[in-house]
Write a structure and sequence with these properties.
The chain has one domain. The protein is elongated, with a radius of gyration of 21 Å. The chain has nine helices and no strands. Helix content is 84%, strand content 0%.
Length: 255
């Protein structure tokens, strides 16, 4: 219970730090650059490979039903809505949780149990400014970019499978890809990933900072942070989807 309370207090403290504009002047930009390089290039390949095969499966399941209904002109728009609004931001966030969030938690947790964070306090260095904020801003900057790469990969793989299996011309596919609110939905999708990134980064770092109990505590904190981050993403995804995309006008009326 004490550990849970300390995590909630630190979580709120970090959120308050993000709301303070002065924090940008105290940010360690060299550390931020290191984290950006760590997150972006190292996560890009797995993000694109995962998006490629997931979109192949989704296309296989959806396109044949629309061909059966003789609604080929809706194939691109339906797939675009699925990828932009739900699949791409959630899938990219899950990948970042598993690859980056778990790494942040275990790294900071190891520093905590070996008293390296206490040494920062002795040196007069604020661990939130030095350790947490560069990692949080790195995820906030890179997660939307990874989401864009995921979307691009999904569109390309869908057009590929539609051409190879269902003989749908790629030009026709990309023409049907555009619908009235396409660019607005992309902006909302990026906003989704930013909100996801805030909670993923803070949970990963806070769980690491509050780790106690040696190597066993590091493992428990890493597992707990991954599970908590996934729960945050799934719960937030419902509310964000409801408030962002639940419009009185049906998406198919806007095609």
């Amino acid at each position: 219970m004490n550990e849970f309370i300390s995590r909630i207090k630190l979580f709120i403290k970090v959120l308050a730090s993000l709301a303070n504009p002065i924090i940008f002047f105290r940010l360690n930009y060299k550390n931020l650059l290191d984290q950006l390089i760590l997150i972006g290039p190292n996560s890009l390949l797995i993000t694109m490979v995962t998006s490629f095969f997931i979109s192949l499966v989704i296309s296989l399941q959806i396109v044949k039903e629309f061909l059966y209904l003789n609604a080929t002109e809706l194939v691109g728009s339906v797939l675009a809505i699925s990828f932009i609004r739900e699949l791409s931001p959630v899938l990219t966030s899950i990948i970042v949780i598993g690859k980056v969030g778990s790494f942040f938690t275990s790294e900071i947790a190891t520093m905590s149990v070996t008293e390296q964070i206490d040494a920062l306090f002795i040196l007069g260095i604020n661990p939130i400014n030095y350790l947490l904020l560069p990692r949080i801003f790195a995820i906030l900057l890179m997660l939307p970019i990874l989401n864009l790469f995921s979307l691009f990969t999904s569109f390309m793989s869908s057009s590929f499978i539609c051409f190879i299996i269902y003989s749908i011309d790629p030009i026709f596919f990309f023409q049907s890809l555009f619908y009235s609110f396409l660019y607005l939905d992309i902006c909302k999708s990026l906003l989704k990933t930013i909100i996801f990134g805030i909670f993923i980064a803070i949970v990963s770092c806070v769980w690491g900072m509050t780790t106690r109990g040696g190597s066993k505590g590091v493992g428990l904190s890493t597992t707990s942070s991954v599970v908590t981050s996934l729960l945050f993403v799934f719960i937030l995804n419902f509310f964000l989807s409801y408030f962002m995309f639940s419009s009185v006008v049906s998406s198919f009326e806007l095609l």
